[in-house]
Design a protein that fits this description.
Blueprint: E1 2-5, E2 18-19, H1 25-34, H2 41-51, H3 65-74, E3 75-76, E4 81-87, E5 93-98, E6 104-112, E7 115-119, E8 123-125, E9 140-143, H4 146-161, E10 167-172, H5 182-193, E11 205-209, H6 213-222, E12 227-231, H7 237-243, H8 246-249, H9 252-266, E13 270-276, H10 284-293, E14 299-305, H11 319-331, E15 336-338, H12 352-357, H13 359-362
Parallel strand pairs: 2-3, 7-10, 10-11, 11-12, 12-13, 13-14, 14-15
Antiparallel strand pairs: 1-4, 4-5, 5-6, 6-7, 8-9
Length: about 375
């Protein structure tokens, strides 16, 4: 494991300026009109941000000096300061970023045979309260604006630029509940997917939710081709309520109704994330119950051997039992895989690095 720490902080001016990455292309055209500028400058700004990845407003040389001054007056270009950058033996890189108000978030670069994937954060902390997750320690501090989510991908891409690589896929599974910050998350998706933005294909982007049911219906009606996942982790209401307090507000049967609506409306397969916790939800009878729960659905089960979190009491399911759980599901006709472990030596589980380094935030 390699760990680098840096010092310094973001200028406090960021507290009164919007992130330049927050605007979608049509919003840039509207803003430019309001400023008395030509709307076609929007494409030039996007080119500087997402293709050339400008490090300063002065770099934007084909924009007039007056427009560059307006941009500097209204927007901030740098919204993330790297506190720690950890590199795993398997090539995974975890970033701990500080924001303009001193709070921190995590972003992870994962290297696969098929390309480089970035896991982004949508909130500082989380209010959902899952009993196995480090992200929820200390509760929710605030939502990220769209530009703060976009900036995570840009920062990782700037790291990859050094080796002529690119971000090829994105998962919205970092700290926070994406559907609890829905509008900013949606704007982020559109910027990532736009051909003049980061140009990441919709089918190379995955968003996950713990189960905010009204937003699932809303997301289905967006009719986007984004991959969609549900953090399930239990095959019945009683156990899920113990693991995930959100299940007390949004019951499992109602969640499954929303999932069926999504599948029927979009025609797309849905994924269920199922973390295996030793002696809690990992028995053969749980697998059989899970198979019954998803019967008839166009879906995929992603089994996740959990990382040990010191602040939580859950332990890892033994490998033999993980394979038995998988085999039981497969024998019952369920499409299932075991997630490949990455970054095990660098606190790569969601929220672990922040909990370790920023105890005052997660206390």
């Amino acid at each position: 494991m390699k760990q680098e720490k840096t010092t310094g902080t973001i200028a406090t001016e960021a507290t009164v300026k919007r992130s330049i990455y927050s605007l979608q292309l049509n919003e840039w055209r509207d803003w430019l009109k309001e400023q008395g500028e030509k709307p076609f400058r929007a494409e030039q700004i996007y080119d500087w941000l997402y293709k050339k990845r400008a490090a300063s407003f002065e770099d934007m040389s084909n924009l007039s000096k007056s427009l560059r001054d307006k941009l500097e007056q209204h927007f901030v270009l740098t919204t993330l300061h790297t506190i720690i950058q950890q590199t795993s033996s398997d090539g995974t890189i975890k970033f701990l970023f500080e924001l303009h108000d001193g709070v921190s978030i995590e972003t992870v670069l994962m290297r696969h045979e098929y390309g480089n994937s970035v896991c982004v954060t949508t909130q500082v902390g989380c209010r959902i309260g899952c009993t196995f997750c480090a992200s929820t320690l200390g509760g929710l501090k605030r939502n990220l604006e769209a530009g703060e989510i976009v900036a995570q991908v840009v920062k990782v891409q700037q790291t990859l630029d050094e080796t002529d690589e690119r971000v090829s896929s994105i998962v919205i599974m970092g700290i926070g509940e994406p559907f609890d910050n829905y509008d900013h998350m949606l704007s982020f998706l559109k910027i990532m997917n736009h051909e003049k933005g980061m140009n990441i294909g919709a089918r190379h982007i995955t968003v996950s939710t713990s189960g905010i049911i009204p937003r699932i219906y809303q997301f289905a009606d967006e009719n986007m081709q984004i991959n969609f996942a549900i953090s399930l982790h239990a095959p019945n209401t009683e156990l899920r309520s113990r693991l995930m307090p959100i299940n007390r507000a949004y019951k499992l049967p109602d969640l499954m109704d929303a999932v069926r609506y999504y599948v029927n409306k979009t025609g797309r397969r849905i994924s269920f994330e199922y973390g295996l916790f030793g002696g809690v939800n990992d028995q053969v009878e749980h697998a059989e119950e899970l198979a019954q729960l998803v019967k008839g659905l166009k879906c995929h089960i992603n089994l996740i051997p959990v990382n040990y979190v010191p602040e939580r009491d859950y332990v890892r399911t033994p490998k033999r039992q993980i394979f038995q759980f998988e085999r039981t599901l497969r024998d019952l006709g369920v499409n299932v895989t075991i997630r490949r472990e990455q970054g095990h030596d660098i606190e790569a589980a969601c929220g672990q690095l922040r909990a370790k380094e920023r105890k005052e935030e997660t206390r």
